[in-house]
């Protein structure tokens, strides 16, 4: 059976809304995908500031923004459908929304962007709130992408996404284990902003700095890294805890970028060390690590990571750009399809929930 789906993802870097139209096929007994077209709608100042500050709104203001942002997402989906001639093709939309608050210790998470509004604006059945059921079952509600990695990227022993937050998954053969490793691009971007840049192109600024060993040790000593997985991060870890620590030390910005890049690499190696004993060693897939997310374009970070992975005999694979930039949105589309089929969307082996679950609210877009 072939499913034609749109996946919509607003990641923690707040760079924009990623849109993917994909054709997902399970007729050969396993899932395969084709990415037909993609877009990233960059946030203007209005959406950037509103989404960034949404946590501090009153309940009334939040509710208005939730609806308005849902309508805006629906309009972006309609424009995308127009531009790419997808009329009467798209069967389902899955929208992650934008994470405003994530507190798994209190069994709660909050993604803004009303799924009902998206269904109303597009007239297409829409799945939203993909994390809620897992949290209700005592899980972290994140990462949820590993189910898609199991369906679409099982040839890789490890999948790493270098987004605003870096997260890694490991194929154990039977199932998946995964967790958020550390804040990544969001912190690098905050540092690059000190030099008037949206991000550190290719990691060139970081490359020109020197490592501040005192700061590096302080970063590596943060409590989160000592916690066992399952575990996941709220954005505030990067913006408040990590950034506050860096600011206190007052390094020169290039040195801070260099130090933080090294910190990301060291935490990724530490994470791989933790996961490796459970990795599936058949077919040598534990020696293949797929890297996606905007950080895969940071050549300095990738070079440092590749060097460090050499010790483990692990090969770092950067796939085609469409996958690097859109894997999360692609997998949201798949999760929407799985929800529609009433099949699991979240793996409890990853999140620690009492069971795997069929997550997501379904909003019927068509008239009865
Ligand atoms: N050429 C480049 N050089 C360096 N960094 C880059 C480059 N291109 C993109 N990036 C980084 O990638 C970021 C975007 O990454 P991405 O879209 O994967 O994050 P996200 O999806 O918002 O995050 P998350 O996966 O945590 O939700 C940019 O903000 C920038 O920091
Ligand atoms: C709560 C939340 O939105 N978490 C995001 C965030 O961004 C990256 C990382 O932290 C990951 O755990 C998750 O997103 C991806 C899509 C996931 O759930 O797999």
TrEMBL record:
Which NCBIfam families does this entry report, sorted A to Z?
Answer: PRK09585.2-3
One short Pfam name that applies is: AnmK
Q: Which UniProt keywords apply?
A: Kinase, Transferase
Q: Which GO terms describe its molecular function?
A: ATP binding; kinase activity; phosphotransferase activity, alcohol group as acceptor
GO biological process terms, semicolon-separated:
amino sugar metabolic process; peptidoglycan turnover
Q: Supply the name of the protein.
A: Anhydro-N-acetylmuramic acid kinase
Please name the InterPro entries in this protein's record. Anhydro_N_Ac-Mur_kinase (IPR005338), ATPase_NBD (IPR043129)
Q: Which organism is it from?
A: Limnovirga soli
The top EC class, named as a word, is transferase
Q: What is its EC number?
A: 2.7.1.170
């Amino acid at each position: 059976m072939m499913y034609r789906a749109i996946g919509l993802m607003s990641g923690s870097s707040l760079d924009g809304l990623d849109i993917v139209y994909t054709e997902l096929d399970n007729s050969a007994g396993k899932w395969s995908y084709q990415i037909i077209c993609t877009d990233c709608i960059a946030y203007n100042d209005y959406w950037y500031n509103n989404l960034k500050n949404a946590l501090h709104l009153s309940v009334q203001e939040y509710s208005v923004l939730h609806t308005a942002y849902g309508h805006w997402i629906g309009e972006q989906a309609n424009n995308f459908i127009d531009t790419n001639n997808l009329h009467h093709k798209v069967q389902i939309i899955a929208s992650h929304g934008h994470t405003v608050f994530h507190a798994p210790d209190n069994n709660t998470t909050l993604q803004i962007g009303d799924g009902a509004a998206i269904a109303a604006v597009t007239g297409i059945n829409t799945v939203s709130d993909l994390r809620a059921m897992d949290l209700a079952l005592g899980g972290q509600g994140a990462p949820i992408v590993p189910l898609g990695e199991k369906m679409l990227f099982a040839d890789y022993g490890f999948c790493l996404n270098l987004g605003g937050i870096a997260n890694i998954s490991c194929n154990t053969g039977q199932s998946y284990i995964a967790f958020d490793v550390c804040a990544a691009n969001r912190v690098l971007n905050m540092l690059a902003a000190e030099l008037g840049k949206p991000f550190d192109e290719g990691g060139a600024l970081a490359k020109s700095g020197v490592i501040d060993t005192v700061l590096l040790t302080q970063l590596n000593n943060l409590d989160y890294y000592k916690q066992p997985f399952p575990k996941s991060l709220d954005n505030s870890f990067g913006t408040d805890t990590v950034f506050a620590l860096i600011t206190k030390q007052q390094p020169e910005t290039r040195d801070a970028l260099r130090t933080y890049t090294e910190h990301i690499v060291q935490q990724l190696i530490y994470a791989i060390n933790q996961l490796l004993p459970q990795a599936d060693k058949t077919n040598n897939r534990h020696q293949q690590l797929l890297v996606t997310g905007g950080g895969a374009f940071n050549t300095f970070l990738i070079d440092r990571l590749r060097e460090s992975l050499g010790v483990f005999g692990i090969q770092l694979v950067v796939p085609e750009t469409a996958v690097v930039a859109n894997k999360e949105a692609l997998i949201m589309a798949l999760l929407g399809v799985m929800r529609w089929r009433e099949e699991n969307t979240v793996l409890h082996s990853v999140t620690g929930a009492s069971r795997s679950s069929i997550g997501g609210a379904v909003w019927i877009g068509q008239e009865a």
